[in-house]
Amino acid sequence: MSAIASNIAKIKAGLPAGVKLIAVSKTKPVSDILEAYNAGQRIFGENKVQELTAKFESLPKDIEWHMIGHLQSNKVKYIAPFVALIHGVDSLSLLTEINKQAVKCNRVQDVLLQFYIAQEETKFGFSLDEAVQLIASDAFKQLTHVRVVGVMGMASFTDNHDQVKKEFKTLKVYFDELKKQFFSNAGYFSELSMGMSGDYLFAIAEGSTMVRIGSSVFGGR
Ligand SMILES: *Cc1c(COP(=O)(O)O)cnc(C)c1O
After folding, report:
1. For position 33, which CATH number holds?
2. What is the SS3 assignment for 119-166?
3. Which structural domain range is residue 96 located in?
4. Full-model pTM
């Protein structure tokens, strides 16, 4: 078994049923992705539009591609025809552009709303109040071709486990609150994307349904 295949097998053995592994392949060559693919992995995450489209074009078409990075509105059109899930939606203007491109492609685009849960200033995302205002707005109701299927967040990069757990708990509270207020009858609102190589076991303990794991699958970058 290749190193990548055995990494995937080990990680998957530790994931509860229903928790999906997003193999984060950013900066890694197509040959590494094929190794993971041949080990049965079908969901891959990338954080740059150009890299994502290039890999989409050269790899098998049954791969489910997730955009996990910060997405600029002017680049949505390049991934709109094929991307399965956009994790990092952090503004109404971005959501509006995603809707516009999805209409052109005759698709309904699944997205996650990104929340700001970390202590670091550099991380993107909504506060709970901002997200509630967005979803309650008339502008949001016009967006016929986007479907919010859940939330995403990144914990602080720290050795302080209690801090990380607290941040994941907060994201779960946000998820539950939005579910209650807006999506109680929407079975599709079900995804909680949280957890990376260094912290995914904490994220799972707090209710993650999607872990985004790069270096523990493919090695360091
Ligand atoms: C790079 C990245 C990951 C994966 O990080 P690792 O520490 O390599 O597992 C997960 N989520 C996002 C948003 C990323 O940019």
Report:
1. 3.20.20.10
2. CCCCCCCECHHHHHHHHHCHHHHCCCCEEEEEEEECCCCCCCHHHHHH
3. 3-218
4. 0.97
